[in-house]
Design goal:
37% of the residues lie in helices and 16% in strands. The protein has 242 residues and is an alpha/beta fold. It is globular and about 45 Å long. The N and C termini lie far apart (41 Å). The mean pLDDT is 92. InterPro entries: Aldolase_TIM, DAHP1/KDSA, KDO8P_synthase. One of its GO terms (molecular function) is 3-deoxy-8-phosphooctulonate synthase activity. One of its GO terms (cellular component) is cytoplasm. It comes from Polaribacter pacificus.
Amino acid sequence: MALRIAEKVITVTNKLEIPYIFKGSFKKANRSRVDSFTGIGDEKALKILRKVSETFDVPTVTDIHEVSDAEMAAAYVDVLQIPAFLVRQTDLVVAAAKTGKVVNLKKGQFMSPSAMKHAVQKVTDSGNNQVMITDRGTMFGYQDMIVDFRGIPEMREFAPTVLDITHSLQQPNQTSGVTGGRPDMIETIARAGVVNNVDGLFLETHFDPANAKSDGANMLHLDHLEKLLSNLVAIRKTINTL
């Protein structure tokens, strides 16, 4: 599955000359229910991520949830991601920073954009200047999130800032215990992010979202990726000529 998705995405991003980093979770630790899928085994999954990197010559990123994950994952991937719910966990952020890998800090759904400067500083104070922020929306009520685009230029003052255009459209805390989403709004969020000069986009894509093991409700179908990215590249080119 990982190789199939990576091959398709890379074909599109190479065509459009977009730098690409492959993201895959070696372990899904943050789930609504105890019976939700969490993974196939830590090292087995990490080896797949390394295979993607070696096969297609692209960097990879995965999220970590415990201090002990940092050193293990760093042996296989190029970027360590701190999940939004854990971005205030100092020991975890410092452990990621001390591996020397690039650290991607997901903005907490409960945090203001300005508060992310402290998370960034934890990385730089640990001797690592390779840090970026990814906005994935702010909780607005119990079952919805909003992207405050005023936060993008604010966070770019601290570090390069990426916009997560699929997790931002999640509708968490459903009574079923399975997170919902609004994939029909992906391009709307993405266009607004590009217009506001985000440094990159984070998105989940799959060839069969309905049967994806995680986050299928807010994914972009892989068949729609090229059209979306083509439109966004056109917008970015227009912005750059102004």
